[in-house]
Amino acid sequence: LIADRAHRRRLPVYVVGGFVRDLLLNRPSQDFDIVVEGDAIALARALERELGGRVTSHSRFGTAKWHIAEIRASLLKNTLRLDNADLSDLPEYLDFISARTEFYDYPTALPTVERSSIKLDLHRRDFTINTLALRLDGRHYGDLYDYWGGYADLQRGLIRVLHSLSFVDDPTRMLRAVRFEQRFGFQIEDRTLQLMHEARDLLRQVSGDRLRHELELILAEEDPLPALQRLEELQLLESIHPDLHWNPQLNDPMHAALKAPLESAWNLPETWGGAPIRRMLAYLVWFLPLPAEKSANLAQRLRLPHHLREGLKIGAELIPDLPGLLDCAPSRIVARLDGVPLPVIYALFLLNRTSEIAEVLSTYATRWRHIHPVTDGHTLRAMGVSPGPAYRRILWALRAAWLDGEIHSPEEERRLLEQ
Ligand code: ATP
After folding, report:
1. Between the CA of residue 5 and those of 45, 96, 208, what are the distances in Å?
2. What is the C-alpha separation between 132 and 19, in angstroms, rounded?
3. Residue 102 CA to ligand 1 centre (angstroms)
4. Residue 205 and residue 199: Cα distance in Å, rounded?
5. Which of 106, 157, 226, 290 is most deeply packed, by most CB within 10 A?
6. Residue list, ligand 1 pocket, CB within 6 Å
7. Of residues 195, 236, 233, 246, the one with CA closest to residue 214
């Protein structure tokens, strides 16, 4: 469809990068990057006019996104006439890119952009395996364009940069190299590895936001643990910040935070502070075992969200108190844990799985925190207690009595209240 509309406009059009790489590796991919030798925004807008959906664009970069989630059913049935296809066979959006070259005015700067050919467009990419293009328009349909040796590297399983200043232009590519290497079971090619050693100190200059984004792409991998280990081995983590390391002892809790089913009885929220819970748990598991000062440094370096920083601080204060809680009455434990965010408690549970502390944290999260007296402010007011600090004291005394097994029924609670 796109090929046809591009062909009518005499525009060479290609699907490039991850999609082609994954196709040749026989891995499913929904990541359609379409490069147009010409005006990609105009092509996307023409498709929008004819077929619907919605286009958003960036004129500075010559890029457009065609959102097709709502028109997928009609595209499949009416336009493509694929009656038996599944909606999920089509992605929710397609990216259109005008072939462009990028110049870096100084290392780590954001690039200056200029229109160009497909060959130069592919040259601005990170690794050879991401430079393959499949042409779509007219009689060229299905032609594989391999200007930079991507096919051979895909066959050999090598991650190779396109030129010796690649990591200097964009140091985050070092993290991407490790991510692809571990995802595909490839090897970073020797010269690329050497360039990485030479360039790794530049990571110090990269903004926390960009680094966090790349680290989160790693955490989102199917198995992020080998990539974290490899980042450590290549000294890339400490190049980001001297306090940042990966300790394989964290493999189990990190796996539990990111992949294993979460304990359903805890009723953890799906997001925390607007961010996915598993990602937040991953940071907690990673940084809570560190001394408070180091974890605060890392939170600042990676510009972690405010609630996560607070959570790390509260967690660091709690850790030294945990062993002492083992011999305490439930009300003492609840008094200490109330106010600690549940994701922090869960992360500490994962980090202490083999000790009795886990049991205490789990009982708190699944039982004790839900125990409250029947009495509330209204009851007290009706009894003639004047509103004020006494309310809190009384309600807490009643809750503590329930928690510590001193009362077991609303009747017993009422009797205690009347005393
Ligand atoms: P994934 O399968 O993880 O989505 P991808 O290869 O599709 O991997 P994206 O991050 O979606 O990666 O990027 C799309 C394309 O843009 C990549 O194929 C890559 O060539 C290029 N690219 C992305 N980030 C960079 C970068 N920092 N430097 C150079 N090229 C990049």
Report:
1. 11, 13, 41
2. 9
3. 15
4. 11
5. 290
6. 17-18, 31, 33, 125-126, 130, 170, 172-173
7. 236
Give the per-residue pLDDT at 366. 97
pTM of the predicted model, to two decimals? 0.90
Pocket test for ligand 1, best of 130, 169, 176, 211 (most atoms within 8 A of CB): 130
Whole-number pLDDT of residue 278: 97
Please tell me the residue having the least CA distance from ligand 1 atom 12: 18
Atom of ligand 1 nearest to the CA of 127: 20
What is the reported pLDDT for 107? 66
Distance 130 CA to ligand 1 centre (A): 7
When pLDDT is cut at 50, 70 and 90, the band that residue 381 belongs to is: confident
Chain center to CA of 20: 24
Kindly give the distance from the C-alpha atom of residue 18 to the centroid of ligand 1, in angstroms, as a whole number: 7
Answer yes or no: is pLDDT of 419 > 90. Answer: no
Whose CA is closest to atom 13 on ligand 1? 18
- What was the ipTM of the complex prediction? 0.96
pLDDT reported for residue 1: 83
- Per-residue pLDDT of 36-60, as tens digits, reads 999 999 999 999 999 999 999 999 8
Can you tell me which atom of ligand 1 is nearest the CA of 217? 3
Question: What tens digit of pLDDT does each residue of 79-138 get?
Answer: 878 777 777 778 899 999 999 877 777 766 677 767 788 999 999 999 999 999 999 988
Our mutation pick for probing the ligand 1 site, out of 25, 29, 31, 165, counting the most ligand atoms within 8 A of Cβ, is 31
Distance 283 CA to ligand 1 centre (A): 24
Instruction: Report which protein residue has its CA nearest ligand 1's atom 8.
Output: 18
